[in-house]
């Protein structure tokens, strides 16, 4: 590989990481709001035209995935349902709904932080983004800032388990405490 090519490649890696960092910031906002931390950014000709995060609980809507919200926003911004000159950066491999919307919007390129082996539809469970039977296929790059993206998700679910455990322990302590209190009053009587 020539020097020029490797420099161009380095620049591309830098660009990808820059936008993935933005998507990560969105994912962190979701975590703070007790939503599964997934963030997304859409870039059009070098300009960020949409960024958002998962808001499923807040909106009480299954449609409020980061990618769907960003696609909606991007379509509004460029006044077209086709996102033909856009690149999507998303911290977690898209689900079947979002992958479907990405294909429908003809997004040419998707950059993914970490894969989702149990539910991802960009190669894990199925690869909706690259079905030869459909008229549109998406260029997919995976593993951009993978550690950060994956750590955020793992931490969120670990904290959730800790919270549940703590809640259970507190509830048990309350029940036990309540029982002994009752005994105390009986003793006094
Ligand atoms: Zn989704």
Query: SSE string, helix = H, strand = E?
Result: HEEHHEHEEH
Shape: globular
Strand order of the largest sheet: 2-1-3-4-5
- Give the helix level as a range of percent: 40-55%
Mean pLDDT: 92
Radius of gyration: 22 Å
Question: End-to-end distance, in Å?
Answer: 89 Å
Question: Could you characterize what this model shows?
Answer:
Strands 2-1-3-4-5 form a five-stranded mixed β-sheet. The protein starts with a helix and ends with a helix. It has 189 residues and is an alpha/beta fold. Helices cover 52% and strands 15% of the residues. It has helices at 3-32, 56-59, 66-78, 96-104, 146-188; strands at residues 39-44, 47-53, 86-92, 109-114, 139-141. It binds zinc ion. Zinc ion is lined by residues 65, 67, 94-95, 97-98. Residues 65, 67, 94-95, 97-98 line the site of zinc ion.
Explain briefly what this protein structure is:
The chain has 189 residues and is α/β, with parallel strands linked by helices. It contains five helices and five strands, in the order H-E-E-H-H-E-H-E-E-H. The termini are far apart.
SSE layout and pairing:
Blueprint: H1 3-32, E1 39-44, E2 47-53, H2 56-59, H3 66-78, E3 86-92, H4 96-104, E4 109-114, E5 139-141, H5 146-188
Helix pairs in contact: 1-5
The protein binds zinc ion (ZN).
Residues 65, 67, 94-95, 97-98 line the site of zinc ion.
